[in-house]
Amino acid sequence: MTSRSRAILTVGLVVCCIGPAVAEDAPACASFAWSVARDRAAFAAPDLPVLASGSTLPAGTGAAQVALKPAADVALPVQSERTAKPGTFAGFVTAAVPSAGTYQLTLSDDAWIDVSQDGRTTLKPERISGKAGCPEVRKSLRFALGPGPITIEIGRAPNPQIKLDLLSVE
């Protein structure tokens, strides 16, 4: 068998085996109010940074996996709009917003999100979209943000790790 034949066979097997799995989850993932394709791709990256609660998102990358702590053990910088539930996890990260605009904050799992730019109050999202049944993404919110630092607080998470993506809306 030639190397070209092996390559064609390999591509065919990948399409045959992976194609149906992608097609099965596409309806739920495609039913968000806006595209979460960039978030899904970011969450699937093999080099996704893992951050401890209290860390800063690396400049130039909006996606990371955040290690959360039991909610009872976390002191969030800004009081959350929702009180912690027993048995859930919480944490926060900071980020630098380069310019004013609308930003999309997406989570891999269900959780409560608070965003603050002044360190005292939380911002209301402009829009929220969430869908059960999309394996990589559960919730996506859009915020109008000015340039400068922000704090992203995660609460009421059922698991000690969550993927988060912060992107400028195209």
Indicate the CATH class.
Mainly Beta
CATH names the topology as Jelly Rolls
Q: What is the count of DSSP helices, taking H or I runs of 4+ residues?
A: 2
Q: Return Rg in Å.
A: 18 Å
- What sequence of helices (H) and strands (E) makes up the elements? HHEEEEEEEEEE
Termini gap: 46 Å
**How would a crystallographer describe the biggest sheet?**
6 strands, mixed
User: Which outline best applies?
Assistant: globular
CATH architecture assignment = Sandwich
Instruction: Classify the beta-strand content into a percent band.
Output: 35-45%
Structural class: alpha+beta
Q: Order of strands in the sheet with the most strands?
A: 1-2-10-5-8-7
Helix content: 10-25%
Low-confidence stretches: 3-25
The total beta strand count reads 10
Q: Domains counted in the coordinates: how many? A: 1
Overall pLDDT confidence: 85
Précis, in short:
The protein has 170 residues and is an alpha+beta fold. It has a single domain (31-168), classed as Jelly Rolls, CATH 2.60.120. It is built from two helices and ten strands; from the N terminus they run ααββββββββββ.
Task: Please give the structural blueprint.
Elements: H1 3-30, H2 37-44, E1 50-52, E2 63-67, E3 69-70, E4 89-97, E5 101-107, E6 112-116, E7 127-130, E8 139-145, E9 148-157, E10 161-168
Parallel strand pairs: 1-2
Antiparallel strand pairs: 2-10, 3-4, 4-9, 5-8, 5-10, 6-9, 7-8
Question: In words, what does this structure look like?
Answer:
The longest helix has 28 residues, at 3-30. The protein has a six-stranded mixed β-sheet with strand order 1-2-10-5-8-7, with helices on one face. Strands 3-4-9-6 form a four-stranded antiparallel β-sheet, with no helix packed on it. The chain has 170 residues and is of the alpha+beta class. Strand 7 and strand 8 form a beta hairpin. The chain has one domain: Jelly Rolls (Sandwich), CATH 2.60.120. Helices cover 21% and strands 35% of the residues. The protein contains two helices and ten strands. It starts with a helix and ends with a strand. Mean pLDDT is 85; it is low at 3-25.
